[in-house]
Amino acid sequence: REERIKVWGSSVSTWLFFWSAMLMVFSVVQLRGTGGVIDGGGVGVMRGVRELPDFAKGERVGDYVHRAQDFSIEIFSAPKPFVGEDKDNNERAIRSWLRLKPTPKVTLLGWEVGYDEAAKEFGIGIEKRVDKNFLGVPLFNSMLHRANNSEKLVTVIINGDILLFDDFVQTLRKVLVNFKDFLIVGARYDVDNLPLDSNENDPDYNRKIREHVLNTGTLHTYGGMDVWAWNTDGPRLFDPVMPHFVFGRGKYDNWLTHETIAAGRREVVDVSETCLTVHVKHDYHLVEGGAKRRLLGQFWSEGKKSKFELFINIYLSLHVGTYTNQMGNVLFAPWKLSLCLEPTGMCLLKRKRPGICNCEFSSFVGATQTDPVVKNGSRVIRCGMISVETKDDFVIPVLPPEGSSEPPPFGLPLTLDSIIERIAENNTIILSALNFGYRNIMMNWICNMRHLNIRNYVIAALDPDLYRYAYTRGLATYYETTIFQGLNSSLLADATYGSDSFKQLTKMKSRVVLRILKLGVNVIWTDCDIIWFKNPIPHMQSHQADLIIQTNAPDNEPMNGKRRINSGFYLARSNGPTIQAFEDIIKYASRSRMSEQPCFYDVMCGKEMETIVGTDRCAYNGMTVQLLDRHLYPNGITDGIWDTEPGKIWIKFPNLYILHNNWVKGADGKQSRFEKHGFILFDDADELCIYPTEW
């Protein structure tokens, strides 16, 4: 009997072991069907074929669990300057990002107050090669370009004050193992404040914040997004060239989401419910430019036609690509990741009709900004409000309305006075004037200024087309009309390089300069065919003269030799003698068939060189003209610089401030020089600046 009991016991043990093993295999198979996430972030690594239900056949859901084993993340952000309350918000957000596992690489985009200190304190990077508008705000197309070139598998762009928690990584893993190519979008949670007793060093900190946010926070409107994430080893996100959206001013989020969906190369996933992205409410003082501090609802609800940068973003969203009003919010994402009671805690849902119902957002959270509302006496349920912008409503204003006694809102349109008020430094601006035909060389020079972080420039647009072009690319520009009074404006259209019309057009430059000098502002005039190697303004201002100007003399002639002034680069100080001299130059040039440049010399140094002083000065009616050292400010023939071996100019001539691309025949010759020496700084295909690393 004892033997029978032993045999029976052994059989039971074997039987239990067998079924336990089968149950484990069954559980693993079930786990594989949910994406392989274990215990909030661990990943199963078994390989197999993903079996989908019949209704899901044909969907691009795969088995990419192997990618989640060692995946890497880089987070890009362009926080506000680290000053006051913004500093606290920025640093709290960065700490939350660095607590994620695996620890992401964090890179700040731009060049703002406190960036260097934050990089040193937190051990994070700075990418300064970011295009900005003339007010110093990053342009989103440039930010996206930098993020897309990350070497990490997953790249993220996030607003600088958004807190992240471990469910962000869990969400990334879930999407990563299901889709080969994807774009993640999500709305944030807004809270008025964080708990007073919250301590980031508390092991229970994440749980406390989560409970606080879920109990007191509000899920933001479906129309706005603060975080984007995508795999960098996939295809292009969208088809159109992204316009120059101003970061933080709306619409680029909807445009990006819509155009990625329309391109059809990536699966776009709404992760608003599974990803706790937290935003502590703040005002919008930077956007208002110092006006009364206002909170979120007040700021965005005001007229969009009175806020310059919002107006530009709306205009760009409606005029580039296929986006139309209110498309591209999170409800239009074909896929949605939702919280559920499955082993992973997340379920992947496919929207049959994305964007069809605003009230979908969202019954799975405590509160949203777009909860259903029934108006008194109505049977209509409303879930939030949609924008009603149309192309016809957003037309770029070129000139202020005629007869208006009130000045227009800033930027609508941009005017000379309003620009100078905001960008002049030490009462000085940098000026150039061009027409639409010279837009590419203008952008090359603008990229040069961005590379050197110089922002006090103004573009005087000599036709409406150039004004609109520059306006939508974030440049400080205005439409110059006053200088053509009494002249045939058709010369603008005919002003090809070297033509008679071109010579006439060059005479307009000094008229623009004179107008600004009369406003009491110093002017640095620059032609756009000049490369700047470093900021020359402090050095130029150190000269005790009224007009500090480049020489056009060959090496074997004195710098103030006959008709050797170069009117393509100079600093004119706003004072009585200089203003009078420019009036005399304009009058003299109007009677001459020569271009403007020799007229400068004849007036200020004399037709027969009668007012020259030494080898580098001239004196005229109480003013002093100083010729710049040609070895620091060379023209196109000085020292044979342009004949230097390609890529070696800044090595062989390390003391240069600028280099003028003149003394060469035609526009093609200038272009050839720029290409040979690596001075093409504007990618006209993607409309992005190219930032040299050598200088």
Could you walk me through the main structural features you see in this protein, from its secondary elements to its overall organization?
With 695 residues, this protein is of the alpha/beta class. The chain is 31% helix and 16% strand. The protein has 20 helices and 30 strands. The strands form seven sheets. Strands 5-4-3-6-11-8-12-14-15 form a nine-stranded mixed beta sheet, sandwiched between helices. Strands 20-19-18-21-24-23-27-26-25 form a nine-stranded mixed beta sheet, sandwiched between helices. A hairpin with a 4-residue loop joins strand 29 and strand 30. Helix 15 runs antiparallel to helix 17 and helix 17 crosses helix 18. Mean pLDDT is 87; it is low at 4-9, 22-49 and 287-301.
Provide keyphrases for this structure.
alpha/beta; 695 residues
Spell out the blueprint of helices and strands.
Blueprint: H1 2-33, E1 37-38, E2 42-43, E3 73-77, H2 84-98, E4 105-109, H3 115-122, E5 125-127, H4 140-148, E6 154-158, E7 162-163, H5 166-178, E8 182-186, E9 189-191, H6 205-216, E10 218-219, E11 227-231, H7 252-263, E12 267-270, E13 278-280, H8 285-288, H9 296-301, H10 308-319, E14 335-339, E15 346-350, E16 373-374, E17 381-382, H11 416-423, E18 428-434, H12 439-451, E19 457-461, H13 464-471, E20 477-479, H14 500-506, H15 509-517, E21 522-526, E22 530-532, H16 537-541, E23 547-551, E24 565-572, H17 576-590, H18 596-604, E25 612-613, E26 617-620, E27 623-627, H19 649-652, E28 658-660, H20 666-676, E29 682-683, E30 688-689
Parallel strand pairs: 3-4, 3-6, 4-5, 8-12, 9-13, 12-14, 18-19, 18-21, 19-20, 23-27
Antiparallel strand pairs: 1-2, 6-11, 7-13, 8-11, 9-10, 14-15, 16-17, 21-24, 22-28, 23-24, 25-26, 26-27, 29-30
